[in-house]
Write a structure and sequence with these properties.
alpha/beta, Glutaredoxin, four-stranded mixed beta sheet, 8 strands, Sep15_SelM, Sep15/SelM_sf, oxidoreductase activity, Sep15_SelM_dom
Length: about 200
């Protein structure tokens, strides 16, 4: 009888250990060779350079000769899980992260600058110069002039939603440009014909 009770207690402990809460994954590190193997793994290369930077609490560590692996970590950098992703697709790599609670930030693809055409800009010379002189240097940026509107910079994500709205009134011209550059809005090369088209569209507005 006592032996049966001891056996039952032992089994209960084993079951309890099996159901114990696993270490909490809060960070992920991608380890990979920076070039050699990646050149033959285009999907992994795209995942590393385009998707990984969009995950908070994620970092990439390049190690010469290392296989491409996702290393899931606790708050104290204790390794919980390591997965070789060389045979995975880009979609599957993202799924591995999402299944473990990581959320990818949506990519900013364009911007809209909304402002009153004259009223508020007359007292904001730096913002005015940014709108009339600098915006033509960027791809995927549109200007909307609305009577009475405060000067705002609106970033649109890949789903077409407003991801961020920033009031430009307290900012300098340089700070306004930095907002576009920091969010990877591409700078374009243009010739004199582009300049004429810009001036024409501005006049029409």
């Amino acid at each position: 009888m006592n032996l049966s009770m001891l056996l039952f207690a032992f089994l209960a402990i084993l079951i309890s250990d099996c159901h114990a809460e696993s270490p909490n994954i809060v960070k992920v590190r991608l380890e990979s060779c920076p070039g050699c193997q990646l050149n033959s793994l285009p999907e992994i290369k795209t995942f590393i350079y385009e998707d990984m930077p969009r995950y908070p609490d994620a970092e990439t560590k390049f190690i010469h000769g290392a296989p491409s692996e996702l290393v899931f970590l606790t708050e104290d950098d204790e390794e919980v899980e390591r997965i070789n992703i060389q045979k995975y697709t880009r979609i599957e790599c993202n799924q591995l992260l999402e299944e473990r609670g990581f959320v990818r930030t949506k990519k900013i693809v364009k911007a809209v600058v909304r402002s009153c055409p004259g009223c508020s800009l007359s007292r904001l010379p730096e913002v005015k110069d940014f709108i009339y002189m600098d915006l033509k240097n960027y791809h995927n940026v549109k200007t909307e002039f609305i009577s009475g509107a405060p000067p705002e910079l609106i970033f649109i994500d890949e789903d077409g939603d407003e991801a961020e709205v920033i009031n430009l009134e307290p900012l300098t011209r340089e700070e306004c440009n930095d907002l576009l550059v920091d969010r990877d809005i591409p700078i374009k090369m243009y010739d004199e014909s582009d300049e004429e088209l810009w001036e024409q569209s501005r006049t029409e507005l």
